[in-house]
Amino acid sequence: MPARNPTFILSFDFDGTLVHPESDPVFHPMLGQMIQHLRNQGAAWVINTGRSLPQTLQGLSQYGIFMEPDYIIAMECDIHKPGLFSKWTDFGPWNKQARKAHTRFVKDHQASLNSIREMVENQTQAQFLTGEYGELGIVATTDEEMEVICSFIDTHVRQFPDIGYNRNGIYLRFAHSGYSKGTALSELARLLGLNASHCFAAGDNLNDLSMLHPRHACMIATPGNGLPEVKAHVQSHGGFIATRYASEGMMEALTHYFGGKS
């Protein structure tokens, strides 16, 4: 059960941070015990992921994580809280604002998006995707190909700073730059009467960088399997780099930041 009045936040990316399919176990049960102990001390446990809400819930079940998070930030932006009978609902007005901003973003930057799409389709082997609900994304064939695409997108970002994107390996999703894992975490903290000094955030991939920053979380960490760019970023901001992968690395991180909390 969530703390009635949380005093701090534990925000974890899901894939590669909480779970790692190639590890044994995929999710270490001791991490679950540590999270539960900290919840008893006032923590709100948050999964902050690029997965959709249904995919996140499916992943929890798939990997045998039967604790229900206090909040889920899905699609790198949308804040959800559990309701009665485990039905998840929007928490606050943020999600509605984000959807409006995305619609405006697509309309305002149609010329740039068309240019990017033309580049992807004519100069690469990648795919430019349009989702059922207006999501726009790219799937590249290699990390190197995605690097080239991102360099081209960045030429538009420099002209229009609200053009944002979330990258995870060969996958990329466009978004208004004001709505990310980081800004969603700060909004959740605000709704709970907290701020960055009360937030712990951990992630392993490029789409986690926005929340691994002191403006959103003063306690940041990455597991041993974090990308080199993520490790360098965390180190440059005085964060913690674990030696072990995923959930075992998160046990190291929680011990580092909260080892004396009882």
TrEMBL record:
Keywords: Hydrolase. This is HAD superfamily hydrolase (TIGR01484 family). Pfam families: Hydrolase_3. InterPro entries: HAD-like_sf, HAD-SF_hydro_IIB, HAD_sf. GO terms for molecular function: magnesium ion binding; phosphatase activity. SUPFAM superfamilies: HAD-like. The keyword Hydrolase applies. Coiled coil: none annotated. It comes from the Bacteria. It comes from Prosthecobacter fusiformis. The keyword Cytoplasm does not apply. One of its GO terms (cellular component) is cytosol.
